[in-house]
Amino acid sequence: MNETSGRVLKMSYRQWAILSAFGLICGLAAVQPAKAQTAGSGMTPSKQNELLGATTGLGSSHRFATIEAAQNQCPGDTIVWGSGITLTYLMPGAPGYGATQPGFYACKTEADSDGFGPAK
């Protein structure tokens, strides 16, 4: 056994941090082509998010502060005002629509598929 074969590789914290950051950057760079492919494909934003690994349903990426943001998520769908506490939503025109707290705007189809229902 020669002098170097028995040594343990020692790395400083700084070297470890640089190596870790490099690995993260390389990993993120590998994801970029997938994003570029879906961006111009004509898919809905919801489908693009799903392909990129987002969860479906009414997670935070499917709850919106404005009607416009929800409409961008699901063009043509009814935008409801939801409450995560009660798993209910209000239809447009209902008293409290957009005003009760806590609440959020969401796509009706997504809300229905995630167990939400109309308030009674």
Termini distance?
Answer: 80 Å
Number of strands: 4
Which ranges are low-confidence, i.e. pLDDT below 50, for 5 or more consecutive residues?
A: 31-39
User: How much is the average pLDDT?
Assistant: 74
Order of helices and strands: HHHEEEHE
Structure report:
The chain folds into 2 domains: 13-51, no CATH class; 60-118, no CATH class. It is built from 4 helices and 4 strands. It has a 4-stranded mixed β-sheet. By secondary structure, the chain is an alpha+beta fold. 39% of the residues lie in helices and 12% in strands. A hairpin with a 4-residue loop joins strand 1 and strand 2.
Short description:
The protein has 120 residues and is of the alpha+beta class.
Summarize the SSE layout with pairings.
Layout: H1 13-39, H2 45-51, H3 67-73, E1 79-83, E2 88-90, E3 104-107, H4 108-113, E4 117-118
Parallel strand pairs: 2-4
Antiparallel strand pairs: 1-2, 1-3
